Amino acid sequence: MLHYFPENNINYTHKKRDYVIATFTFICVAISLNVDASGSLENQNFMGVIAWIFLIGLLVGENKDVRTQVVIAVAFATVGEHFASIYMGGYIYRFDNVPAYVPPGHGMVYLTAIALARSGFFLKYAREIAVFVVLACGTWSIWGISGIPEQGDAVGAILFCVFLIYLFKGRSPLVYLGAFFITTWLELIGTAAGTWRWVELEPIFGLPQGNPPSGVAAWYCLVDAVAIGGAPLLLRWIQKNNKWITKKARKGVPQETTENE
Fold first, then answer.
1. 107 in a domain, yes or no?
2. Is residue 7 situated within a structural domain?
3. Which end of the chain has the least Cβ crowding within 10 Å, N or C?
4. pTM of structure
5. Cis peptide leading into residue 203 (ω within 30°)
6. Has residue 149 been placed in a domain?
7. 119 lies in some domain
């Protein structure tokens, strides 16, 4: 089960950049979601511009693999937001829209999960962090289906089981652990501030879900998995087409020269 976890008893390097990215995103999430809780639609749009600037700035120091992953994560998550929120109505934003800062925000969230996953702290204490996450999220999920809270959370318990599969069967468990921390942070703040709310019954099977669901990190893990798996395919496709375009261009030069002569 721990096949893809890093080895123990190794002194991993701590890179300042990873901690800066994580700290910056956690702070931005807290500020932006609280500001949006009482802001106007114009404020949302302005925050969207700022978020894109922040995301692009954070990506400057990353390699093309990570940049490609972020692009895929943003695209996939944006489609998912419109489907799950606008079309299905599983959760609802204040203005019944997808705020302008959400797409670049997903990019920052994904990049934070990557930064945490490669940080020296996560690499060194991966197993301990995994135990903490499983116990914390597991307790939250059990509480949701115990009948004690007014709003049940069967969906959260199901998502928690899905999260466990990602964590112990997926090839990037540290990314999923990182995703748990940043996504739980943003979900708790966003729902508490009233920036969005999860409906009491999910729209497909009518199961009760919390606000937010306890295992909500599983949805973000899906975004991460698509980004990680899709990046190599996209890069190969781009490389292949670049070669094809270059080959066509080279073939065209002699023909044009001959015609001119």
1. yes
2. no
3. C
4. 0.90
5. no
6. yes
7. yes
CA distance 50 to 85: 23
Closest CA to 186 of 83, 109, 129: 109
If you write DSSP's letter for every residue of 135-157 in order, what string do you get? HHHHHHHHHHTSS-SSS--HHHH
**Domain coverage including residue 118:** 16-247
pLDDT tens by residue, 8-44: 878 899 999 999 999 999 999 999 999 999 999 999 9
Number of domains, the chain: 1
Instruction: Report yes or no: 23 and 108 within 8 Å, Cβ to Cβ.
Output: no
Tell me, what DSSP letter sits at residue 208? B
253, with CB counted inside 10 A (0-12, 13-18, 19+), is exposed
3-state percent helix, strand, coil for the chain, nearest multiple of 5: 70, 5, 25
Which is nearest to 18 in space by CA: 124, 103, 104?
Answer: 124
**Environment class of 125 (CB within 10 Å of its CB; exposed 0-12, middle 13-18, buried 19+):** middle
